[in-house]
Design a protein that fits this description.
three-stranded antiparallel β-sheet; mainly beta; single chain; about 10% helix; four-stranded mixed β-sheet; 1 helix; rod-shaped
Length: about 350
């Protein structure tokens, strides 16, 4: 019994001495070691206690805090030792540079995405994309505007199933835009019907290659300003299915024909017209004809292909005149020597 008690006492004393030596050794190592390479593994929570102030490079209460100034302040590597995710904290400014050799994906399940929130007075771009030479390519301004600085035949593209529907070319001297399909601006302000190759201005349903309409019957639909000509190379230069209203001068550059084979009538009503003169009669409803000053030419020429009054033949060159609601016709007699004025109409 006495031997057993002595053995226990000896071993208990040995344990106490060993514990004191271990604590002394640990204290000595903690004071002397400045670099420690090790792996820390835990199945639960790793806790570091006893720190009264932040003095270490790694400290954690709820998260990890790093105090490192380096181009590789934080690294994630793959199994081959290649950096796949790195933080650079040495760049100027209050931000950091993120380098990733693989794709960065946000979202996944749920509705998570990439959210960038600007400051109350955002001065810098919210998002900026640079090329390998650090030249600006694209991004968003502080106000959310889209910025692009790309010289390419396809600087901006909108596609549907791989087919280009809207392309902006910024590589030429003058930027050009190509659009596939129709275009509608403000319902009916400007409409392109790509199926019918028609353009409408002021109408949602254009009729013809170019259909221009005013807001009301009295509003101006088309204005051509400056010293420009309106030209069309075809048999019918201009076709109007209603009245032609001219508030300025109507100038005929060449010999023109008024009327056609269907015996179209020409009426002068409520106004006066001056031909070959800049001054028209002041009497409304009159036709004023004058030869150019200093030029010896025929002022008025009336022609026809029928003989004068011979039996029942209708005079070909005839002027119809009215006086007190009585019709008179003026034409050249058969001999061609006199001018006849008789009651009746040129259709008689």
């Amino acid at each position: 019994m006495r031997k057993t008690i002595a053995f226990v006492r000896q071993n208990l004393l040995g344990q106490v001495i060993a514990s004191l030596l271990f604590l002394l050794l640990a204290f000595t190592i903690a004071k002397a070691v400045t670099t420690l390479n090790l792996n820390i593994a835990t199945d639960g929570t790793l806790s570091v206690t006893g720190a009264t102030s932040l003095s270490a490079d790694l400290y954690s209460t709820d998260g990890a805090l790093f105090n490192v100034s380096s181009t590789t302040a934080f690294l994630l590597q793959n199994g081959s030792g290649t950096n796949i995710f790195a933080f650079d904290t040495t760049s100027s400014g209050s931000g950091f540079t993120l380098t990733a050799t693989t794709s960065i994906t946000t979202g996944g399940s749920g509705s998570r995405g990439l959210l960038i929130t600007g400051a109350a007075s955002q001065a810098q771009n919210l998002l900026q994309i640079n090329n390998s030479s650090n030249a600006f390519l694209s991004g968003f301004t502080g106000a959310g505007g889209l910025l692009m600085n790309i010289s390419s035949t396809t600087a901006f593209i909108l596609q549907n199933a791989g087919t280009n529907h809207f392309v902006i070319d910024s590589s030429g001297a003058t930027a050009s835009t190509t659009q596939r399909g129709g275009l509608v601006v403000d319902t009916d302000t400007f409409v392109v019907n790509a199926n019918e190759n028609e353009i409408g201005i002021g109408t949602a349903v254009p009729y013809g290659a170019l259909d221009i309409r005013g807001a009301t019957a009295s509003s101006t639909a088309l204005v051509i300003g400056g010293d420009v000509d309106v030209y069309r190379s075809a048999a019918n230069a201009l076709t109007i299915d209603s009245a032609l209203s001219v508030t300025g001068n109507l100038t005929l550059q060449n010999s023109e024909v008024i009327g056609n084979t269907t015996a179209t009538n020409v009426f002068i009503s409520g106004t006066s017209i001056g031909i070959a003169t800049t001054t028209a009669s002041t009497t409304a409803g009159s036709l004023w004809v004058a030869a150019p000053a200093g030029v010896s030419t025929t002022t008025v020429q009336i022609g026809g292909n029928r003989a004068g009054e011979t039996g029942s033949a209708t005079p070909g060159s005839c002027i119809q005149m009215w006086r007190e609601n009585v019709a008179y016709k003026v034409y050249i007699d058969t001999a061609g020597t006199g001018l006849k004025v008789i009651a009746g109409t040129c259709r008689d």
